[in-house]
Amino acid sequence: MASIAAPVTHSPLRLTADSAALAANWRWLARASGSAACGAAVKANAYGLGAVEAAKRLYEAGCRDFFVATWAEAEEVLPAIGDASLSVLHGFASEDLQRAVASSARPVLNTVRQVQAWREAGQGRPCDVMIDTGINRLGLSATDVAGGLLDGLAIDTLMSHLACADEDHPLNGRQLAAFRDAAGRVGAKRLSLANSAGICLGADYAFDLTRPGLALYGGVPRGEAAGHIAQVARIEAQVVQRRRIGAGDSVGYNATFIAERPMELAILNIGYADGYLRGFSNSGSASIGGAQAPVVGRVSMDLTAIAVDAAPEAGEGDWIALDFDLPDAARQSGLSQYELLTVLGRRYQRRWT
Ligand SMILES: *Cc1c(COP(=O)(O)O)cnc(C)c1O
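# pyridoxal-5'-phosphate complex -> structure
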């Protein structure tokens, strides 16, 4: 087990990312993308797992197209991806223009101003373009594009982003039709529409390049991916104290759990400051050997109690794995699979197997 960026002092909680699972998820997504190339969204520090480490492993798996949100992220990732292509999804603020022109990463132009600025300052360098086909978040409208706004630009990838691909929603088909229409009017080397969930919608949505993020990191965006996507992130915390409580005793802030019988508890060194948010109060769980250990009471800032009657051996200093399969943890906590990963805090010792 290779440990990267080991902290000088001991950390009582750790986040272990599984390199083989990451690569296997990318390969499944690449197969599901058919003849389209399969890229990888490594924005937001690869959804919290570590952008450089994730990008290196994805490159080794064969990925040659990466996506980040900002230029700070681009500068971090570029050295890890050799000759691969990197797109910066937010385009650029005027403060970023010079570094964008000097960079081997491409800006994704989203606004009329970005297009004009790139035309003036971009020295004919390649760019990507985002068309908004209905999410109403980022991108040029069909009307923006109709007047020849993009003529003469060296567009590598023309892209759009799906709003509801994780559901069977009529907007999916409407966005597909609008994207095809835009693709017929704008000259670009490649077309790209699908995120993780969009890949599951089938070949019509794949075009030349797909852009999965969540499913690389163990998220299951739609039923089609269930059973094919492996868990990547595992979180473990050490037991700080074991204690016995009696019938009628309460646990934690605001006494939201009251024991009906004598119980054994283990108090874990993890809390909402670590991204194990309060939604797991009285609903999360840990696994110890084969035994389930439910979270009891409220998750507090740095500590969480679990019931360990079924694990008589678990004691101070033992490492306990919280259940963190993303679809299950999303149901337990009420958080989205995206939030579960991206809120994990800074106190973990992060390592890759
Ligand atoms: C984040 C993002 C993706 C990846 O989406 P997932 O749902 O995580 O697969 C793809 N494209 C764009 C434009 C994004 O912002």
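# post-check
The chain has a mean pLDDT of 96.
The first helix runs from residue 19 to 32.
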